[in-house]
Design goal:
single chain, 438 residues, alpha/beta, 3-stranded mixed beta sheet, 8 strands, 21 helices, Rossmann fold, globular, GMP Synthetase, Chain A, domain 3, 5-stranded parallel beta sheet, binds adenosine-5'-triphosphate, Helicase, Ruva Protein, domain 3, 4 domains
């Protein structure tokens, strides 16, 4: 074996021991070997769907084949188009490369009551940037389409103005980049990158809260772009009013434009998403099965998509038809993987009551005993984080407390967790135990 291509041919031969010919031709046909560097075997796959599919199901087979051939362990990395360019040093890493993904458009976004405001606002921003809604902040729980809408906006802006400088960044990457460049004395590069943007998209902006210098930098970037008439779109897992560690001056700015929420989709929207997704994958799903999925997978769209992908996999790999048994199996797999158990406030209170040895009535009541206050605040914090309950509703669970009291408690817990790692560990442990249904 003298070239990477030879290695790949041999790997494919080895794979035949575990996988059928059809599986190999269906899923591996677009893969090509790129290089072997420092115990990592690099492959390229231009088809994003197949890439993700192989990553979730077949990486272990490829690793095992390499181990058989070389008697040593390899990492396997599959590069997409942007990744390949970057790997080959042909192009600098551009965040906006991500917007070539055709799947994340307004056309592929299913609109329903749960997301119609966010959708309409995103369309308005895409067609008329920096006019009516600046910034646009889309908030809601994970997997409900926030990033999809960000990409859709970027796709339209790119179409309308191919020269537009679009900068996309995740809140936590913004922080890491900031720290790295400031440390390296290249703060001006950092500033230039963001302040020259025509469109700034920040996904999961809640991460900047609580980090003083980062917030300060973000504040100046924000003002600069805003004053130059550039559009800013942000997403977050909660509204600014609930970002307890956020600087007030940023909070007010986030609230200047439009706040649009996305909530879990209703049955009709879920059904449409399942059908669209199946059609996009070239699969015909009987109506009864599509409804069955939409009835049972309710928490988020990522899981709906995962279920449809799994059903397709079973069909391809095992020849199983999409009947209720296959679907149930696919759903169980997905829910297990994402550890999707949403406790009720009562489940959380039961566990905290047991953990602290304090009765539930006391936790929820008005007593100001030290331990009860701590247990109460943690309970509010976990109810907010682990269920979809809005703060007003959480207040009702705790003897009709006002929502501002709940917010104060959330802030206290967040602060304490930052200050005291042991306390943070305790909160984490309680959460894990609730998830494991102890
Ligand atoms: N209304 C919708 N119509 C079609 N697809 C959707 C819709 N909502 C979400 N999706 C799909 O669900 C998946 C998850 O959505 P997305 O990544 O946008 O979620 P998110 O809200 O940004 O979550 P996170 O906060 O975890 O990043 C994506 O593949 C997206 O295309």
């Amino acid at each position: 074996m003298n070239s990477v291509a030879d290695v790949w041919t041999n790997v494919l031969q080895q794979l035949k021991k575990d996988l059928s010919e059809t599986t190999i031709t269906t899923w591996f046909d677009e893969l090509t070997a790129v290089d072997i560097r420092e115990n990592t075997f690099y492959l390229h796959c231009p088809n994003d769907f197949k890439k993700r599919y192989i990553e979730s199901l077949f990486i272990k087979n490829i690793k095992a084949a390499l181990q058989d051939l070389f008697s040593m362990e390899f990492e396997v990395k599959i590069l997409d188009e942007a990744g390949l360019l970057e790997f080959q040093g042909g192009a600098p890493k551009k965040n906006s490369d991500r917007f070539t993904y055709e799947d994340f458009t307004f056309e592929t976004f299913v609109v329903g009551p749960s997301n119609k405001l966010a959708y309409a606002a995103s369309m308005a921003v895409a067609e008329h940037p920096a006019q009516n809604y600046n910034p646009l902040l889309i908030y809601g729980d994970s997997g409900l389409g926030k990033t999809h809408l960000l990409y859709a906006i970027a796709n339209v802006i790119r179409q309308n103005d191919p020269a537009a400088k679009i900068v996309y960044i995740k809140g936590d990457d913004f922080i890491n980049e900031f720290i790295e460049l400031i440390r390296a004395g290249r703060g001006s590069d950092f500033r230039a990158k963001y302040r020259e943007a025509d469109l700034l998209l920040v996904d999961d902006v809640q991460f900047v809260a609580g980090k003083e210098q980062v917030q300060n930098e973000f504040f100046h970037t924000f003002n600069n772009l805003y004053e130059s008439g550039k559009q800013i779109v942000l997403t977050s897992d909660r509204p600014p009013s609930e970002m307890t560690l956020l600087d007030d001056r940023l909070r007010t700015r986030f609230e200047w434009g439009l706040l649009a929420d996305v909530t879990p989709p209703d049955f009709e929207t879920r059904l449409a998403i399942v059908k669209n997704k199946a059609a996009a994958l070239g699969m015909e799903l009987p109506d009864k099965i599509a409804s069955y999925i939409a009835e049972n997978v309710t928490a988020n769209v990522r899981q709906l998509e995962g279920t449809v992908n799994k059903i397709l996999a079973y069909k391809d790999l095992l020849g199983s038809e999409a009947d209720e048994a296959t679907v149930t199996r696919a759903m169980q797999d997905i829910l297990k993987k994402s550890n999707e158990y949403i406790p009720t406030p009562d489940n959380i209170l039961d566990y905290i009551s047991k953990y602290y040895g304090i009765e539930k009535e006391i936790i929820c009541g008005q007593q100001r005993v030290k331990d009860a206050v701590a247990a109460r605040q943690i309970a509010m914090y976990l109810i907010r984080g682990m269920t979809n309950l809005p703060v007003v509703e959480i207040g009702k669970v705790f003897d009709n407390r006002d929502h501002s009291t709940v917010l104060y408690s959330l802030k206290q817990v967040e602060k304490q967790m930052k200050k005291d790692p042991a306390f943070a560990e305790t909160v984490k442990e309680i959460k894990t135990n609730i998830n494991n249904r102890h």
